[in-house]
Amino acid sequence: MAKSSPLFDSLQADIDALARQLGVSSILIMRSLPQHMQVEASGGRHEDTYPIGAQGQKSSLAHNGRALYCERVVDSGQPLYVKDSRLEAEWAGNEDEVEFGLSNYLGYPVRDADGEVFGTVCALHESARQYSTEEQAALEAFRHKVEALLARSPR
């Protein structure tokens, strides 16, 4: 069963269902903090890899200076797809690949009620794969659920 911070408890079943639908190792909701990306929800086979509240240093602080996938999504405000980080010079050696063996990534920015980037929703997997139009739409629909929750939550 997916795990989450209290804000996202109502989405735990959705997270597990999405991980099964996409056939990926992990579905995450990540929050952007000034110096870190923080896990807010985690589901899929690797849910225990990303404990709630765990933080990854942003590239300006990381020992190897490699950006986190989600950090790039937050900084650009745009989706990111990495088919296989091991084969892409920009992404080879990133934290998710080295520490957890997750070299495939698809992530979308999540915005709060003010339109500011809160963080990301993303799918990670241990092998290269493409995402069909339907799979991309499913992750985007999940993003909209996350944004709807943020819009209703007190600031």
TrEMBL record:
Organism whose genome encodes this protein: Pseudomonas chlororaphis
A single MF term (Gene Ontology): kinase activity
Superkingdom assignment: Bacteria
InterPro entries per the UniProt record, alphabetical: GAF, GAF-like_dom_sf
Gene3D superfamilies noted in UniProt: 3.30.450.40
Pfam name, any one: GAF
Keywords: Kinase, Transferase
Listed transmembrane segments: none
Name of the protein: Histidine kinase
Domain GAF: residue ranges: 16-142
